Amino acid sequence: MDLDTVLMSRLITAMTLGFHIIFATLGVGVPLMISIAEFVGVKKNDPHYKMMARRWARGFVITVAVGVVTGTAIGLQLSLVWPNFMQVAGNVISLPLFMEVFAFFFEAIFLGIYLYTWDRFKKPFTHWFLSIPIVIGGGLSAVFITTVNAFMNTPEGFAMEDGSFLAVNPLAAMLNPATPSKVFHVLSSAYLACAALLAAIAAFTILKKKASAYHQKALKLTVTIMFIFAAANLLTGDTSAKFLAEHQPEKLAAAEWHFETEQGADLVVFGWLNETHEIIGEIRIPKFLSFLAHGDFNAEVTGLEETPEKERPPLWIHYMFDLMVTIGMALLGVSFLYLVFSMIRKWNELNKWFLWSLLFSGPLAFLAIEFGWIYAEEGRQPWIIRGYMTVDEAATSSPYIGLMFFLFLGLYIVLGTLCIVTLRKLFRNNPVEEELEKQYPSIEKGDE
Amino acid sequence: MSYELIGITVLWLFLYGYLIVASIDFGAGFFAYYAKISKKDHIMNQLISRYLSPVWEVTNVFFVFFFVGIVGFFPETAYYYGTALLVPGSIAIILLAIRGSFYAFENYGSKQSNIYMFLYGATGLLIPASLSTALTLSEGGFIDEKNGEVSLKYLELFTSPYSWSVVFLAIVSVLFISAAFLTFYAARARDYPALKLVRIYALFWSVPTIIASLTTFIALSQHNERHYEKMLDLWWMFGLSVGFFMLAIGLIYQGKRYGIAFISIMLQYFFAFFGYGIAHLPYILNPYITIVEGATHESMGIALIVAFIAGLCLLIPSLVLLLRLFLFNAEYVKGKK
Ligand code: HDD
Ligand code: HEM
Ligand code: HEM
């Protein structure tokens, strides 16, 4: 088979997934934010929070549309680009893929209802209830698709002989060892990233205009959520690392440049490798890798030397891991400081420094998601299904794949641009002050 | 019933569901564009956007359900269709992407531009045309497997009368189904100017629909003798289909009971589609995949069916809620809410 078709297949998949994941993350996280804002608004009977839910929902409709079309693209592309992989996957792991469709269905139906029924119910809580299925549907789609990816990392639940399946246990395949840590980390990072993004938007408006009551409330709410999930994310990330140490040691070892098995291993942060594969210019945290991997500073950590040379993942994933973790720490730090400042009267949490760092948190959180996925997927190389099928074996043999790559590249450029243009227009032409007055005329003037 | 047969029945039902709901959507795109260039958009567009806005995502899920489900129940389809359909499949994805996203951008974002309306109309016809290729391929003769490499015979595909008659049938069916639905919807909304217009569309497109059905039948007899013979054995299903077609046209012509007329059209397609499908069996892809040999492992098949039933228990009440709030809520349909 031509190597170029394999490379192009990988690129087209990476591109589609890298694009989809942005919108998928929004699809998972933003409904929770909308639901929380509406809940607070109804509970306190505060029009500001209700308006937040409305405005976020309006933007959400646009991103969902892109999520749905790119998701449809990746769903079909998996069969088109990786026919051999999908043939195996179809036999063993199609259950969660199938269940995912139900989650979409559920979400799509209630989203349609939610968006068109803002003022149709007598009790405001009835409308809020409709947001719950959307939150659950979005969350479940992440859970189901992540189990598929987990299966690719630690395949289980089947017995194979000469390329045919003797027995298949769909539930065991779905609940493979990688599932728990991956699912929780994907969920917590999606909620974190969406809270950070909405906080960034509020911070941006405050920087540009003045700090209206609406935007201050929005900032406070989103940064609080951001802090909670940044903390949760640290925990789930740590669990993921412990999972890797046990079940996929080569991925962790490659990411940490941990070449020899040893006890009390140091954590290597950044740095680079010279020609003889020595690490230079790094920051070393003594014994911390042992702690990250096993929760014990003196535990033994498996090195890359124990993996056959041909089955080692590329070493550059080190940077992906480090960048993700650095961003994770930064998000936690910023949101924590903000909360401390806002609790102490004399300190001003709305100073320029905070607002600027919150502004950067949003895009950085999404970068962390991209880095995390590139790390996770590259770290599985050369396998597509670890231990069973390599990437070269799985790719399509069609010679047209290169052409398709550019076709899709064009599509994503157009979609991305239009999405941003539409969102900007939508909110520019509709400033929150005007809308508040229109929707809730009774609101006190001095309040804004 | 064996699990393979349940699997293919469920998938076929969903494909049928997609055929109906997507046709309404695709055809509406064409009519909206046509109304725009013939300066009748003020009559039509309110009607179209009120129905389509809340449901377009649901339409898409029908399709996703089908292609995810078929890989689950019959994994070999991924191998053959996946390889052969890389190019037409990618083109269909791009068309779907343009349509779905532009729909949201324009509807929630800004005013309707001419380029958008054109794309909305054009994709409405091109998507069914490109998707119908998959059905054409399933008849066999267009996919080749040599030394483990699967390829699509483009020349045969583009010069086959059968393949073109399927494309033609797909397009006119889309327009016919859509016009009939809009007639029903306009009547419900008591939107008489729109009703007058779309009723004519429905009557107009019924003629090419029946012609296309016949030509496809004839072209199939040339292309796949076995399938054609089996369809003749199921003559009563096609007879019922024609019967319902006549009933629907009669009602629309007399200008009454548009709801029943639309249901008859659904039944018309139901019988034709299932007659075609049953006769197609046991092949999913002639001659490479049959439902028995191509089926997934039994434990997976059963798990999928269980998941399916559980899923339906969740979905049906939600769908009923959706329909009651929008389609069957007279106030909403009339535009009062
Ligand atoms: C906002 C995004 C974000 C942030 C701040 C972090 N992560 Fe992460 N990480 C992800 C987003 C993410 C992800 C995109 O969700 C990944 C990709 C694959 C996966 O399962 O989750 C991931 C993967 C991933 C993996 C690989 C799991 C596997 O392949 O099975 C590990 C070990 C960690 N993360 C650990 C951490 C640690 C210790 C962090 C410290 C703060 C951290 N992550 C922050
Ligand atoms: C949505 C988040 C995901 C992102 C951003 C992502 C990213 C990537 C990237 C960057 C690659 C290229 C790796 C390389 O070949 O060098 C890749 C490969 C791949 N991913 Fe993922 N991935 C995601 C989730 C998934 C899931 C859930 C599945 C399973 C259904 C999956 C299936 C694949 C396949 C089949 C390949 C090609 C084989 C390979 O190169 O390893 N991915 N992905
Ligand atoms: C972990 C990574 C992923 C997450 C969290 C995720 C989540 C989501 C979400 C939230 C949506 C929007 C659904 C909606 O709002 O209706 C979506 C759409 C979609 N995703 Fe992904 N996704 C991921 C990766 C993938 C992969 C690898 C596939 C391919 C199998 C895929 C297939 C789809 C499909 C087919 C849709 C469109 C569904 C529809 O028509 O409504 N996703 N995804």
From TrEMBL, chain A:
Localization per Swiss-Prot or TrEMBL: Cell membrane
UniProt cross-references to InterPro entries, sorted A to Z: Cyt-d_ubiquinol_oxidase_su_1 (IPR002585)
Record keywords, A-Z: Cell membrane, Electron transport, Heme, Iron, Membrane, Metal-binding, Transmembrane, Transmembrane helix, Transport
Topology in membrane: Multi-pass membrane protein
Official protein name in the record: Cytochrome bd-I ubiquinol oxidase subunit 1 apoprotein
Protein family (similarity comment): Belongs to the cytochrome ubiquinol oxidase subunit 1 family.
GO biological process, one term: aerobic electron transport chain
GO MF annotations in UniProt: electron transfer activity; heme binding; metal ion binding; oxidoreductase activity, acting on diphenols and related substances as donors, oxygen as acceptor
Assigned GO CC terms: cytochrome complex; plasma membrane
Top-rank lineage group of the source organism: Bacteria
Major location category of this protein: membrane
Native organism: Virgibacillus salinus
Residues that span the membrane, as ranges: 12-40, 60-81, 93-116, 128-152, 183-206, 218-236, 316-341, 353-376, 400-423
Cross-referenced Pfam families: Cyt_bd_oxida_I
Keyword Cell membrane set for record: yes
The UniProt record lists the keyword Nucleotide-binding: no
From TrEMBL, chain B:
InterPro entries: Cyt-d_oxidase_su2
Protein keywords: Cell membrane, Membrane, Transmembrane, Transmembrane helix
Signal peptide location: none
One cellular-component annotation, GO: plasma membrane
Listed transmembrane segments: 6-34, 55-74, 80-105, 117-137, 162-186, 198-222, 234-253, 260-279, 299-327
Location relative to the cell: Cell membrane
Keyword Protease: no
Primary location group: membrane
A UniProt-annotated Pfam family: Cyt_bd_oxida_II
Membrane protein topology class: Multi-pass membrane protein
Family named by the database record: Belongs to the cytochrome ubiquinol oxidase subunit 2 family.
Protein name according to UniProt: Cytochrome bd-I ubiquinol oxidase subunit 2 apoprotein
